[in-house]
Amino acid sequence: MNEQSPEFDWTQLRAFLATAEHGSLTAAARALGLTQPTLGRQVSALETSLGLALFERVGRGLELTAAGREILPHARAMAVAAQRVSLAAAGQAQTLEGKIRITASDLFCAHVLPPILARLRIAAPRLEIELVAANDIRDILRREADIAIRNLRPTEPDLIARKLREATAHFYAAQSYLDRRGRPATLADLARHDVIHFGDPARFIDHLRALGITLSPENLCLGSQNGLVAWAMAQQGLGIAAMADEVAAHTPEMERLLPEMPPITFPVWLVTHRELHGAARIRLVFDLLAEVLARPASGNNGDGNASG
């Protein structure tokens, strides 16, 4: 190793960390928004400055050498420190301009957030809003998003979370499906129908069982991890789908089933980082989202029409 301590280039260290976490230059470059040759040069430059080989090729991937494994926890600690500096700086901004990333489910981004964004455009026209439509939990600590709308309470101590309300969901189906297969009159009748799942059939069955609804894998013949795709299947008459009432309200052609059934409920949490909440643009967006999303959502009645 070089006798003199090297001066670390954060860009090179970030390239090393991404490669270590993703296991290949291709995946790491994609995560950082770089080309593979550019990222490869950054990793090579770090190895040169350290006088160490940090990776070895195994098959089509890369694995850390002993030196790489020794450096990795220190690189992660530096990444956390860099993120905190970025968050602290962003939290001091008091202008209503700049970019804000809001993450929520694909269905929520498509059906619920656009009208709120229209209000934001009027209140702060210089803001640049990016919706990160994702059904997984985006990491605010790593600046993958500035504000998140989640259905689980976050546990990270550096996050501010506000529970807005308990949202409701029911089962819905298209008229074409109901004309063909009939309407279920009870929860037990669902076992004689095609039900569309959203991602993991086994988890979906377990979740419904906890609500007193018994289905088998044979009922879940269609589904998708993409909520918009799964909902489109239901709209095309391919089966029954459980859907948040506020999303279903935007598709009044879908009929709500089992009107006497108690609603399925789930929490809606609004989350941001404690440091970011001090920025004027974050507070503005956070407070407007809280104001609008805290209101009870409209659903569809048993005739398929939106109800107040």
From TrEMBL:
Q: Indicate whether Transcription appears among the record's keywords.
A: yes
Q: Which residues form the HTH lysR-type domain?
A: 8-65
UniProt keywords (A-Z) are: DNA-binding, Transcription, Transcription regulation
Keyword NADP listed: no
Matching Pfam families: HTH_1 (PF00126), LysR_substrate (PF03466)
The major lineage groups are: Bacteria, Pseudomonadati, Pseudomonadota, Alphaproteobacteria, Rhodobacterales
One of the GO biological process terms: DNA-templated transcription
Family (UniProt)? Belongs to the LysR transcriptional regulatory family.
**Bilayer-crossing regions:** none
Question: Which organism is this protein's natural source?
Answer: Aquicoccus porphyridii
Q: What is the protein name given in its UniProt record?
A: LysR family transcriptional regulator
Task: List GO molecular-function terms, semicolon-separated.
Answer: DNA-binding transcription factor activity; sequence-specific DNA binding
